[in-house]
Amino acid sequence: MSIDSFEKRDIIEMLTEDGLDLRQNYGDREYYTCLCPFHDDRNPSFVVYPDIQRWTCWSCKPGWHDIIDYFRVKHGWDFVTARDFASTPLTDDEMLERHLKTQQLEGTIDMLHLTNRMHNLVELLGVYEARVVFQRIDQLLSQDRWIEAERLLRENGV
Predict the structure, then answer these.
(1) Which residues 6+ apart lie within 8 Å of 85 measured at CB?
(2) Contact of 55 with 49, CB cutoff 8 Å
(3) Which end of the chain is more exposed for a tag (fewer CB within 10 A), N or C?
């Protein structure tokens, strides 16, 4: 995918699709402003210049940034994911599917972290005691009671 196909999508359109409430302004040239999505903002400090397809926040992100930078900072995506997302208009169904995949990936990472903590529990408590705790955690997780499972791990030193 070339950068040319990416540049054909308008930054104003993409930022609006991502939920920003941009207000059109005119000075020596056209620009848009809104409250910055990256910090608690009371006065619009997020500024977008459509003629150069760049944005900046005068409070927290000085310098000129493109739409890929925005998606990387806002959503924590790597460059390739942000570039691909920005270069192709998505339908509502595709946007929902991407959102669900992101949540699924975050859930998988959480489970890997939990598994590591369970291995630490075996080292601390021994196999028999850890098995009892594992069974209780398995019960809690099967009922989507994540907070209680987390509390149980902490009570056992993990």
Answers:
(1) 71, 77, 98
(2) yes
(3) N
What value does the mean pLDDT take over residues 86-102?
A: 67
Identify the residue whose tokens are 């997780």.
141
Q: Please, are residues 8 and 89 in contact by the beta-carbon 8 Å criterion?
A: no
pTM of the predicted model as reported, rounded to 2 decimal places: 0.52
- What single-letter amino acid sits at 109? I
The rounded radius of gyration (Å) of the Cα atoms in the chain is 22
85-113 burial code (b ≥16 CB/10 A, e <16): bbbeeeeeeeeeeeeeeeeeeeeeeeeee
Which residues have CB under 8 Å from 28's CB, separation 6+?
Answer: none
pLDDT digits (tens, 9 = 90+) for 9-40: 789 989 998 999 999 998 778 899 999 999 98
The residue type found at 116 is N
